[in-house]
Each structure stands twice: as structure tokens, then as C-alpha cells.
Amino acid sequence: MIANGSRHVVFGTGPIGLALIEELRASGKRVRAVNRSGSGILEGVEMMRGEASDEEFVIAACANAETVYFCLNPPYTKWPELFP
């Protein structure tokens, strides 16, 4: 049972994102994880498929979120291009 009804959105499901997702779930948080494939990671985690560089998608993915976590790891030199 989820104790806290607020939603936490995590962009990225690599090692850092997964560790964060596990901690959030362990503390009873509602979690939406976002990655490019939309593949499920953990039981009880809502998955969303999309690109973090798509502004409209990001706005939709973050709807009703209390907190958003950016756990992506694109090459640093690409940040200005990918996340203007």
C-alpha cells in the first residue's frame, strides 16, 4: 500500500535512477519512471515511454508531480542541444 499520494517523476532508469526509484518506493511514494523504451523496471512503478528532449512530452509526464528527478546521463557536450 502506498502511504503518500503525491507523485514523484524520475527521468532515467539507469543505476542512479533505479536506486532513487527503489528508495522512493520503499518510503511509500507513488513513482512514475520515464525512459525511452517504456519498459517496466519495478513492480508498482508507473512507466512512461518518451524523450526528455520533447518539451510537450515532459510537461505531460510531469503533470501532477510533487517532485521531478533528472537522472539522465547524456554526454555533457550535448546538453545545450538536447535540453535548451
Total number of distinct structural domains? 1
Shape descriptor reads globular
Report the biggest beta sheet as strand number plus sense, adding barrel if it closes: 4 strands, parallel
Strand content: 25-35%
Uncertain runs with pLDDT below 50, 5 residues or more?
Answer: none
**CATH architecture annotation:** 3-Layer(aba) Sandwich
What is the name of the CATH superfamily? NAD(P)-binding Rossmann-like Domain
Distance between the termini: 39 Å
Strand order of the largest sheet: 3-2-1-4
Gyration radius, rounded: 13 Å
* Helix proportion range: 25-40%
Q: Your description of this structure?
A:
With 84 residues, the protein is of the alpha/beta class. It has a single domain, classed as 3-Layer(aba) Sandwich (Rossmann fold), CATH 3.40.50.720. It contains 3 helices and 4 strands, in the order βαββαβα. The protein has a 4-stranded parallel beta sheet with strand order 3-2-1-4, with helices on one face. It starts with 6 loop residues before the first strand and ends with a helix.
